[in-house]
């Protein structure tokens, strides 16, 4: 499979990036390209123009930062993040393979396109079996109901951990910067993907609140193989302790819906006491009942749903004060 002919732009600044948009050509922003270029080989939503942000100076950050242009390997190896936000470094370390992590960027993982068994196939496969709402057809093959909402799964690993830390995303466009809570960024639609991100906007960085250092966060991931594969399910748990009590908690998931999800009601049930086995089992059972995986990945929805309970239990136990 070959990448189709594309107009590739490689701006070295944000100003050059927006200048590259001149004209009526369809375009994609590209970080490391480790997922996007595979889609192009399969004939999936190929644009006329690709604007690589790999050399854009404003997206490169130093040690301790969450600049969108930093590679996952840099996030994984960052000594400040390892000390203050170890769950971020760990989540980066379990994405794909070592070679891919040296190319893939934080921004690319956060903006990862949704995936579906009926979508991420070659053009010839889709022609033979019938395409889907996200590609060339007008119906969702997973949920062909009125309204035709795309239920392709969001499969990024960094987003649930950043949700658990209470992060914000900084977007930048020709008119300036704006900050959006990570919890408000994603749209529950596998095609639209973002609530209000404009096409010309670029994800500049993720920012953590000052109190993020006070949280204990853990991430657990389900996948077919221990390397390379996208998550079939992922759970991030976060706990803020005070005098041996849970004063605040968060639970977030990935790969169970078209968005990374927070579960405030389940999280609230953990607050006010110690994180005992009873509390952990109750939260794990509640998450099992809450997730609604679709038949759009390699593993069965029933197994992925059961594993949400296991992943939640493991993540919460990793957050206990005696772990």
| Largest sheet: spatial strand order | 7-8-9-10
- Low-pLDDT regions: none
- Morphology: globular
CATH architecture of the largest domain: 2-Layer Sandwich
The name of the CATH topology of the largest domain is Enolase-like, domain 1
Describe the biggest sheet?
4 strands, antiparallel
Instruction: Tell me the distance between the termini.
Output: 48 Å
The figure for the number of domains is 2
SS-derived structural category:
alpha+beta
Q: Output the helix-strand order.
A: EHEHEHHHHHHHEEEEEEEHHH
Strand content: 15-25%
Description of the structure:
- The chain is α+β, with helices and mostly antiparallel strands and 323 residues long.
- It has two domains: 1-56, Uridine Diphospho-n-acetylenolpyruvylglucosamine Reductase, domain 2, CATH 3.30.43; 65-116 and 151-315, 2-Layer Sandwich (Enolase-like, domain 1).
- It contains twelve helices and ten strands.
- The strands form three sheets. The protein has a four-stranded antiparallel sheet with strand order 7-8-9-10, with helices on both faces. It has a three-stranded parallel sheet with strand order 1-3-2, with no helix packed on it. Strands 5-4-6 form a three-stranded antiparallel sheet, with no helix packed on it.
- Strand 9 (245-254) and strand 10 (261-262) form a beta hairpin.
- Helix 11 (277-290) packs antiparallel against helix 12 (301-318).
- The termini are far apart.
- The relative contact order is 0.12.
- The mean pLDDT is 95.
């Amino acid at each position: 499979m070959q990448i189709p002919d594309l107009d590739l732009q490689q701006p070295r600044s944000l100003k050059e990036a927006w200048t590259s948009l001149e004209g009526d050509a369809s375009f994609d922003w590209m970080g490391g390209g480790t997922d996007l270029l595979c889609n192009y080989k399969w004939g999936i939503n190929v644009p006329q123009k690709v604007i690589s942000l790999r050399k854009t100076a404003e997206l490169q950050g130093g040690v301790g930062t969450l600049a969108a242009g930093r590679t996952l390997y840099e996030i994984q190896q960052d000594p400040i993040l390892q000390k203050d936000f170890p769950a971020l470094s760990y989540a980066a370390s379990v994405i794909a393979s070592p070679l891919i992590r040296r190319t893939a960027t934080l921004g690319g993982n956060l903006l990862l396109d949704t995936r579906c068994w009926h979508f991420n196939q070659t053009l010839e496969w889709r022609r033979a079996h019938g395409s889907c709402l996200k590609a060339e057809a007008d119906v969702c093959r997973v949920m062909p109901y009125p309204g035709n909402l795309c239920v392709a799964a969001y499969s990024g690993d960094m987003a649930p951990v950043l949700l658990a830390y209470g992060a914000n995303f900084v977007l930048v466009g020709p008119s300036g910067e704006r900050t959006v809570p990570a919890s408000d960024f994603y749209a529950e639609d596998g095609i639209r993907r973002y609530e209000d991100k404009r096409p010309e906007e670029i994800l500049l960085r993720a920012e953590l609140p000052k109190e993020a250092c006070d949280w204990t966060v853990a991430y657990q991931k389900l996948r077919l193989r221990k390397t390379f594969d996208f998550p079939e399910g992922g759970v991030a748990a976060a706990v803020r302790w005070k005098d041996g009590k849970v004063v605040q908690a968060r639970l977030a998931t990935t790969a169970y819906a078209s968005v990374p999800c927070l579960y405030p009601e389940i999280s609230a049930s953990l607050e006010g006491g110690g994180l005992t086995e009873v509390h952990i089992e109750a939260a794990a059972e509640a998450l099992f009942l809450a997730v609604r995986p679709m038949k759009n990945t390699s593993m069965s929805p029933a197994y992925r749903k059961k594993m949400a309970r296991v992943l939640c239990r493991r993540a919460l136990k990793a957050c206990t004060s005696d772990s």
